[in-house]
TrEMBL record:
Alphabetical list of Gene3D superfamilies matching this protein: RutC-like
Designated name of the protein: RidA family protein
Stored PANTHER family: BLR7761 PROTEIN (PTHR43857), YJGH FAMILY PROTEIN (PTHR43857:SF1)
Source domain of life: Bacteria
Any Pfam family hit: Ribonuc_L-PSP
InterPro entries: RutC-like_sf, YjgF/YER057c/UK114
SUPFAM superfamilies the record matches: YjgF-like
Organism, as annotated: Pseudonocardia kongjuensis
Amino acid sequence: MIDLTDSTGSRYEIVGSYARGRRVGDHVYVSGSGAVDPDGAIQHPGDMHGQAVYTFAKIAATLERLGASMADVVRTRAYFADIALAEEYVRAHGETFAGILPAATGVEARLAVPGMLVEIDVDAIVRPPA
């Protein structure tokens, strides 16, 4: 059985003892991710769409390192600092997952990093080649 973890070495991963992503068999789980670069700087400040696109790219890279892709995503969860900005997130989600159609949830929440407008986590199932 495949059992892999992915880590970026971020401060939160180290202190919290968690993986950026984990693959167990055909199931892949990507931890909550935001528009924070490796140096801890917020990317696209004040821009929900920009932060969502940046975050989806981070998630795609984690999935790839674990042998999966965005096409394998079956569930997304988004946590919004301000639900009033959700429409811009939905636009980025639609651009990212056109034709894939994962189940999706979005809620308003207090986020851990000031300036982060959205935190996203995903679940994926790696499908055998057709």
